[in-house]
Amino acid sequence: MKKAGLIVIDLQNDYLPDGKLPLTGIEAAAKNAADVIAAARTRGVPVFHVRHESPDSNAPLFAAGSVGAQIQTCVAPVEGEPVIVKRHINAFRETDLKQQLDQHGIEEVVVIGAMSHMCVDACVRAAVDMGYPATVLHDACATLDLEFNGVTTPAGQVQAAMMAAFEFGYCAVISTQAYLAAQ
Hints:
Layout: E1 4-9, H1 26-43, E2 47-52, E3 83-86, H2 97-103, E4 108-114, H3 116-129, E5 134-142, E6 146-148, E7 151-153, H4 155-169, E8 172-174, H5 176-182
Helix pairs in contact: 3-4
């Protein structure tokens, strides 16, 4: 069995219902993420927290030093868990995430977090392209309604399309319950 690491993407306050960009289902996703993080800690699986931050304190989202940029309390890192601060959609771009994974001997990753169609997507694809087999826990991820060219796609459909794309050619996609039962 390969050594796994858990990557928690952008579960930050700005995505909560009272945040600047509320996501559909974020509270349920964060609760599932908290359960997965707790199980990882119990089993000694390394947890890597990723937090997006804009260097501009007036940024519309994840402004440096703001409450919105902080990781949600229910999934907050504990002492010794790395927190990778990113400024791009891809958690590997201009960060030390890959070095952290390699330093911990990680051979495969489990990815949870937000937003499914952006930062989770970019992280999963980059990880797989770098040779890390990946698993996404679909109900520990959240997204939002998207609009393009006058057409609105509901969050549930965005989520389903994203998970189907992952499962089609990039990684395993399972529920939190199935993942925890297999551990």
